[in-house]
Specification:
The protein has ten helices and eight strands. The protein has 245 residues and is α/β, with parallel strands linked by helices.
């Protein structure tokens, strides 16, 4: 079910479980709410909210910058209880900032293939971004395993090019390292061992600096991790919910 809350468009999956948990999914750079849909399907017994960030998918363009993205997510979360935030890539970075605010209604965070900053991004890729072009071959290399038909379909949800450029310009400068020490809720960090975009060392750093965190490294996986390992990650999310309830 596609709905709107203010300027944000989102897909709502009404859970059939009696649990009061609300799962809120935040997509990454140049994507939209469809990117994490296959993961949400694995946990559809719970209420799932898949957001389009401002200017992505069906959401209004209210400005392409990290502060606006974070404020828009916070506004969406108003009057919502028992939230688990699930962020992928840039969505994970935004999630870290929100978790550090220690909002009582947010019970846990799940950070997938992400970082507090992306300062070691490929310089040639970024040069092309600044020149106004996107090296899609590089992004497909970052994605990793594309033999999964669902992953192949999900790759089509990346774009358009101008949105990818705007988001990677944010990735280049965003830095929420100072937030990590303020995160008090249980935080699960997941990454793939073969990551070349959100490097494993990024996840290790988050784990070292978030007190109540757990790090899970999936072998032979890259940036499509939440899609290619959706079933395993779905089970991890369910186990987390059981531990919180």
């Amino acid at each position: 079910m596609i709905l709107n809350k203010g300027s944000i468009e989102y897909e709502f999956i009404s859970g059939y479980s009696k649990s009061c948990i609300n799962l809120v999914f935040i997509h990454g750079s140049g994507c939209d709410k469809r990117f994490l849909y296959s993961l949400a399907q694995q946990v559809n017994e719970y209420n799932c909210y898949l957001l389009d960030l401002p200017g992505h998918g069906g959401s209004e363009d209210t400005g392409y910058n990290a502060e606006n993205y974070i404020n828009s997510i916070n506004t969406f979360l108003n009057n919502m209880d028992n939230v688990i935030l699930i962020g992928h890539s840039l969505g994970g970075t935004l999630t870290l900032s929100i978790l550090s605010q220690n909002i009582p209604s947010i019970k846990s965070g799940i950070i997938i293939s992400s970082s507090a900053n992306f300062f070691k991004m490929d310089k040639e890729f970024l040069k092309k971004i600044h020149d106004g072009t996107v090296d899609m071959n590089y992004l497909i290399e970052c994605a990793g395993n594309t033999t999964d038909p669902v992953a192949i379909k999900t790759l089509n949800y990346i774009g358009p090019e101008n949105i990818i450029i705007k988001d990677f310009l944010i990735d280049e400068i965003i830095n929420v390292e100072s937030c990590l020490k303020n995160i008090n809720v249980p935080t699960t960090i997941m990454t793939g061992s073969d990551e070349i975009l959100a490097l494993v060392e990024y996840s290790e750093y988050m784990h070292e600096n978030i007190e109540n965190s757990n790090l899970i490294i999936f072998p032979n996986e890259r940036h499509m991790l939440p899609v290619t390992q959706r079933e395993k990650i779905g089970r991890i999310i369910k186990d987390l919910i059981q531990s919180l309830c």
